Amino acid sequence: MKAYLILEDGHVFEGTSIGSSKEVISEIVFNTSMAGYVEVLTDPSYAGQAVTMTYPLIGNYGVCLEDQESTKPHVDGFIVHELARLGSNFRKNIDLKDYLIQHRITGIEGIDTRAVTKIIRQKGCMNGMITTNEYEDIETVLKRIQQFKATKVVAKTTCDKPYTVGDGRYKVALYDFGAKKNIIHSLLERDCQVTVYPAFTKAKDVLKQKYDGIMLSNGPGDPKEEASIIEEMRLLAKGNIPIFAICLGHQLMALAHGFDTEKMKYGHRGANHPVRDLETGRVYISTQNHGYMIKKESIDKTIAKPWFMNVNDETIEGMTYLHEPICTVQFHPEACAGPEDTSYLFDHFVEMMGGNKHA
User: Fold this and answer.
1) 214 backbone dihedrals φ, ψ, rounded to 5°
2) Which CATH architecture is the domain 2-150 placed in?
3) How do 12-19 and 24-31 pair as beta strands?
4) What residue spans in the chain does CATH classification 3.40.50.880 cover?
5) pTM score of the predicted model
6) Which of 64, 85, 144, 288 is most solvent-facing, going by the fewest CB within 10 Å?
7) Could you say which of 27, 39, 334, 336 is catalytic?
8) Catalytic residue among 125, 247, 327, 336
9) Element (H, E) at 213
10) Four-point Cα dihedral 17, 26, 115, 1, nearest 10
11) pLDDT in tens, 169-202
12) Catalytic-role residue among 250, 324, 332, 336
């Protein structure tokens, strides 16, 4: 079946429908990873977005359900140059084409994904439509596409109620803004008991439990839209409990301290982004998935200082707070999929809680 990707700037790409044939309008972004498409599909941070994979062949090792970062896919759409019809891997549970159909993910293949990526890099992230309908009046369609805005995406991805995993020595509260599964696994490996809380949990309800540390997860959307969460983060910061934040949690904590964030032209999404530790000068390769960043000029240097910086564009990739036990990073040290260069940051968090390094 023919399918079309229509970008809000008027570009139309013709390909073949994969997965569901339902029509979707979403923000179109690109990911530069060569592998890890299962983790991409199931990363809650992609809620409200359709992902273009720049690597030309996707699906060649099928889908291993154990690799899912949440219980279901969260992407609105999936855009690839070529979908492998048969996955070859001893861990495979299902082929990618069947997985997309099973979860009703709208997709398109057979288009020039590098061309789509170049357009986004030149003009910035934009909305788009994946459809099997042939529209004669493209201008009317473009108006619909341009009006789209993903809203309340954190509410759609967070857990419904608190739950506890593990029985380790260190008691950690994890705010779930759209948390990836491997964040929990990384903490469990370091002798932590993790209690996961919905995103809108009151700070006082967490602080009264006397946890050893608090973890703020990744998540989707514009951090400025989460005003009620930002206020709770402000109260958490005053609790004098070690806090480690990733991605959206990093941005929310910055906003809670009066700093500012802004949308990036096309974001960082992939498993090959170099970041420099400003304290040691050492460079690490990181996994990233974000479209917003902290505005460097908004940082009050009496409150916090940059910790990591992106080597490519010098955007802020980490913060340490000077008067509170808080460290935050924009990238993903749990690295699923991707390099494990920065997994030591979880050890750093355990040290903040009074523990020893993970062996």
Assistant:
1) -125, 135
2) 3-Layer(bba) Sandwich (3.50)
3) unpaired
4) 154-352
5) 0.95
6) 85
7) 334
8) 247
9) strand 213-216
10) 10
11) 999 999 999 999 999 999 999 999 999 999 999 9
12) 332
